[in-house]
Amino acid sequence: MMKASKKKESTNSGSLDDDPDANREESEICPGFKDADAFVKYGLGAVISATKASAGLPVAGDEYDFYRSFPGFQEFCESQGDKLLHCMSQIMQHHGCRSHIRDRNKLTGLEERFDLVVDSNDVILERAGILLDEADGVNRSQNPVMPAGFQPPKIVVSSWNRKGSSSGSRSETFRLLHAKNVARPQLKFKEKVDNSNTPFVPKIFIKPNALKPLPTYFSNKQIRKERPEDLDVPAALADFIHQQRTQEHVDDMFAHPYQYELDHLTIPERLLSKPEPQMYKPMAETKLSFIDSLEDLVALNEKLCRLSEFAVDLEHHSYRSFLGITCLMQISTREEDFIIDTLELRSEMHILNEAFTDPTIVKVFHGADSDIEWLQRDFGLYVVNLFDTHQASRALNLARHSLDHLLKNFCNVNSDKRYQLADWRIRPLPEEMIEYARADTHYLLYIYDCMRAQLLESNHGQPGLLQCVWNKSKDVSFKKYMKPIFTEESYLELQRKQKRSFNTQQLTTFRLLYAWRDKLARQEDESTGYVLPTHMMIKISEEMPKEPQGIIACCNPVPPLVRQQVNELHLLVQQGREMPLLKAEVPLFGPHDTSRGSESSHPQLIELETPAGQKSLSVAQMKARSITESFENPFRMYLPSTGAHVNKNAKFDPSSKIFEISKRWKLQSAEQQQKEMEVKKKSKEEAKQKAKKLSDGGRKKARGGSEVGEMTPKPSKKLMKSAEKSQKTEPPSEETFKPFDYAQSDLKVFDGSKAKDNMQFDPNRQAQEFRKKVRQKNNFSSGNRSMSYMKGKSDRGFRHAWPKR
């Protein structure tokens, strides 16, 4: 522990500024050592030698007690123990911990000392972790700051909203961004946002840099424009009609358009060799262009096509949109920075596919997993020849994989994350937000050069590790955007994530609220968190308020759409209350838990035949199946849902509600019910006939020639049992006399010797041994015994089973 504290001090000294004065003071802090590495090596050797010496001490137990009996050994142990406790107390005092480790009670002293050591270790390790983070460029002492904005805000004087006094002489107050009055950009889009419950279809219709031509479904606009929403049909059948129309184009619709090009992409040798990092220009000397017109976008595409690499980043907004909106795109080259207003140029962004899919141009991203999907969803853009600095950071095993850490580690730049959660729909953008967005890509090309050089150095100049990063980046390019699809079991996934246990009424309410939230969010193009946050939905499902005011009370603050639709929510809660109340036997289960029945185990009313070439039903076919089931079974709404867990015993318990419902809504024909009644009558008649036969047999034995019609008492239970046994075992008609075989008997009994006992364990026999030993004193000798009553083991049992004389 003392060595750890000294290591901490050496680490702290190493984090000071690299000036000659600090180097002079280093020799005073660690006298006798040139640098911190020499001190660490010496400390590690001392710890190892102390550990080996402690292993040679007598082990606690008989050996230690034997040595403890010698006065010399006892005095030595006490003196060394006092020195160790004194040293530990000094270390605790140095770190500001409780250090009264020597003055302790003899009875509880060991436990108290152990607690003091544990607390001190926690403090020391926490302080060492903070110093290591500061050395890596991560400062955890700064308080989190809310994003600022463009509108003139009110100055809020509070502790979390003010910088520390150490940052400057005057406390700087940050502004908070409120985007309540921002116009919805979805209203200006030329193409309406598709929030329907259908799979996502790629938007691409022109394929530049193609090695394989684009399928006819994407190039033919007539097929793409045929949508079921334009027909006068119910909304529930629209998806099914669309699926039937596009059935022949299913393989093309859901395939990656650049699958072939990515499979045949080869990284040139110049990208696998060690580069010379090209230093970035200062931001003040770099030109910045804000692009919000089609002419500027075309000129940018021409510039990018002449380059060998450029950096890309996106700014996204997801709170006031169901699928999300890409609000801004930043592109940086070696000489210039560009910021594209993607809200204004949303329908023209596909022009950049010429540069983004060029295999000779490297596109540098950081954490491109979400960016790749957003580009496909909003603009129909695809990326070929991608380099992800996040994957490179993971391959280098850096302390952090965030862009902040890379900027601090390679560029010594502290990024300002005040605008990370800002509303990027605001137009015009304030200068602070433009600078923040620009900094995300301005330094990325220099980081790209440095990380390639480090990947080669860490692998001794071999390109294997760098090639692995290129392959992982290619895997990120293969990602496809998947639209969230609502199914009847979607709410179960959310319930597993929240780890909540519901009864049948609460689970039904949760299912209905989940379906209502998803439907309204798609209609209004709002996120599910804006319509009804998950924690509020769980609160309503658990409480199940009886009045609309109770639903309002469960929400704080009340979402606007909940206040508007509170009566509809109240009806859904009432519908959940009408379900029979049953407590779930298995409240929580994991994805691999097989304790509950699978979906195939639940009874299905109608079985739809799936096509031979299709393994699973599509979303449209599942909807069509539910529609046909609703027509075939009009009482389906009264039956418990397949998601709720129903106790099997409740189905056979006449006092339960499940028993009543299952009997009330049994969909069986009249012929089946008549057959069941006939079977029940036959079983009752057979039971009566058996009872009469048993009673007749008992009467004949009691009274030989009595008539059947006479009043006779009921047969006893013993007679009934004997009659049943006689019916089961039919005796043979002719019995032949067989003499007793004395060869099988134990003749040693006549000699007075005991027979061999059975070696098997018999608890009843052992229980009687004590009584037999007491009675042995009163027994006569074997010569006086009667030959007719021999001492041996009775076939009828033990003493208590002997018949009375």
What is this structure's SSE topology?
Layout: H1 2-14, H2 20-29, H3 36-55, H4 62-68, H5 71-94, H6 109-136, H7 216-219, H8 221-225, H9 235-245, H10 250-253, H11 259-263, E1 287-291, H12 294-305, E2 309-317, E3 325-332, E4 336-341, H13 353-356, E5 362-365, H14 369-378, E6 386-388, H15 389-396, H16 403-411, H17 431-442, H18 444-458, H19 464-477, H20 490-498, H21 504-524, H22 528-531, H23 534-543, H24 548-553, H25 560-564, H26 566-577, H27 619-632, H28 657-664, H29 670-702, H30 717-728, H31 763-775
Parallel strand pairs: 1-4, 2-5, 5-6
Antiparallel strand pairs: 2-3, 3-4
Describe the structure.
Among the domains are: 36-101 and 117-123, no CATH class; 258-478, Ribonuclease H-like superfamily/Ribonuclease H (Nucleotidyltransferase, domain 5, 2-Layer Sandwich); 489-578, HRDC domain (DNA polymerase, domain 1, Orthogonal Bundle). 45% of the residues lie in helices and 4% in strands. It is built from 31 helices and six strands. It has a six-stranded mixed sheet with strand order 1-4-3-2-5-6, sandwiched between helices. Helix 1 runs antiparallel to helix 3, helix 21 (504-524) packs antiparallel against helix 23 (534-543) and helix 21 runs antiparallel to helix 26. It is extended and about 120 Å long. Residues 1-23, 140-178, 585-614, 705-713, 728-735 and 780-789 have low confidence and may be disordered.
